[in-house]
Amino acid sequence: MEERYYTIGMAGHIDHGKTTLTKALTNVETDRLKEEKERGISIELGYAPLNLEMGVAISIVDVPGHERFVRQMIAGVAGIDLVVLVVAADEGIMPQTEEHLEILQFLGVEHCIVAISKIDRVDEIMLELVMDDVKERLSETIFRDAPYVALDSLSGIGIDELKQTILTKLKAIDFRDAYGSFRLPIDQVFSVQGQGTVVRGTVYEGVVQKSSQLRLLPEGISVKARQIQVHHEERQQARAGQRTAINLGGMDQTAVKRGDVLVDSEHFLVTDTIDIALQVIGRKFAPLKQRTAVRLHVGTSEVMGKIVFFDRNELTQTPNEVLCQIRLEEKIVVRRGDRFVLRRPSPVETIGGGWVIQPNGGKYRFGDETIEMLRHHQQGTPKDLVVDALSKYLLLDEKSLMQHTSLNENTLAEILEQGVESDSWLEIPRQGYSLTKTFIKIKDELLDRLQQYHEDFSMRMGMSKAELIQSVSTSYPKPLLEFSLNLLVEQNELKRFEQFVALPLFNPHLPQKWRVRMEQVISSLEQDAFQAKKWQDYFLGTPLPKMEIAELTAHLIGSNQVYRLREDTLIHHTAFDDALNQLRHQTDTCFDLKQAKEVLDLSRKYMIPFLELLDELHYTKRSEDQRYWTEDKR
């Protein structure tokens, strides 16, 4: 049978017996610091294994109850599967009990057992009153149906009942699937002499193997898991739901801190701007103004930032969820769906909590449009998340899609395959994916630009591919433009000739505005044959602009309607063809200048440039005084 791993937390007011209860359950003293033992209170997180049944491995996290150590409490309960809420029978609900309750709900903890401790100090009537009080307080929370166990940790009364209740409760909870990329938010860092730096935490996702190569985020430092322990026992691996300690070989302790995250892939996003769904506490608090400094607790990290609202300038007590954003002073590692707690730094108080909608938020305008966009992201299906990411970034590979959507490999692969089959997006070899609607938009822009280009430069063969891509490169990634252009050629939406691109039905032609004038020039050149004037002389007295003359020249030469005889002289192709045919038919395999002159009867002014033109066009090949007809031009 597959072993199941769970982590449960002890929460409640200071001195209500959490640590004593943990020892009664596990026989482990979790207060290990000298100051903790002297003062009789928990300051740091304590951990202990709870062995109840074969195949069920349980870790207990004992969190501090004093209000000064709420930050440690938040780090401890992040990622737990079940909470044991400890309430002393002689005191009942206290301020830290209330705050812990709020924090637990904000962090998404859904399963609770209420342990009424120290029952030896009260009579049955008082015990019943305390239970009724707790039940009333929990009646409007997610823990309204939590089971209750009355106990005394020192005498052992109720401990076996609590163990059985824990086991029954855990068996009804879906244990965490270890599939996916490994993630361990670090809540403790210490050094072991002779072994180096060790980090502890609860494995949120995946599995880590001994000797695995890992990355420490947000710094991005490569590390190695030299040794793995689970409650002081060396293991080959640790998996989701387990408390684990990992020895990081060669790592200086000062380079690691609580809140850092160990991962085994590049699928995790480092960010300093997150879009959130915030639920505030159910009691009044001092209004939180726009861009007020706040302290964000997510995973085991604690980071300062500013809260940004898009539908209000001040936050007061409200039963409604508030969609907003936190802009942080430091980079953190989060995924969509991660739970958080928000606290005011001064005066210190919990404001609320909720979950991360978008781990990589942008800068948005104030108003309803942004709220609707955030609500769409909040309610989105996995496919919607992919569409949103591709809409924002246009082209993303699988690694980037996992970062921006927080989907695991299996889910993402399935969605991507479905999307390609349904033509929702296109797979671009070695580059990633892009929405089909993005391709259509690119297509429209490319075709519009080409249409305009043909109108502006009707005599050109087309627009160079590089120029066309450059014209829209500020709006789209170049690999996406390259792919789109090639696909349009395959679909016969475009045609390509060498480096030029054109619309399928386009052929170079004279512009309507100057057609008559240009045809007159061309006709005059044709009539002059080998008595052609300087090319510029043909435009004397015409209203043709210099730009149009340059375009006409390039068009005529590019389409072989004329040939450049000399730098300032062109001849019409009919004159060239006539001379070529005469010379070809009235000479043998080779000829010299004298023979050519006898055939064509041209002056030296035109004869020599014409023969050099034949050489240039590879009709002939010169060897000293002789010219030989080339085989491919005969």
TrEMBL record:
Keywords: Cytoplasm, Elongation factor, GTP-binding, Nucleotide-binding, Protein biosynthesis. It comes from the Bacteria. InterPro entries: Beta-barrel_SelB, EF-Tu_GTPase, EFTu-like_2, Elong_fac_SelB-wing-hlx_typ-2, G_TR_CS, P-loop_NTPase, SelB_WHD4, Small_GTP-bd. The keyword Nucleotide-binding applies. Residues 3-179 form the Tr-type G domain. It is found in: Cytoplasm. Pfam families: Beta-barrel_SelB, GTP_EFTU, GTP_EFTU_D2, WHD_2nd_SelB, WHD_3rd_SelB. The keyword Cytoplasm applies. One of its GO terms (molecular function) is translation elongation factor activity. Translation factor necessary for the incorporation of selenocysteine into proteins. It probably replaces EF-Tu for the insertion of selenocysteine directed by the UGA codon. SelB binds GTP and GDP. PANTHER family: ELONGATION FACTOR TU, MITOCHONDRIAL, ELONGATION FACTOR TU-RELATED. This is Selenocysteine-specific elongation factor.
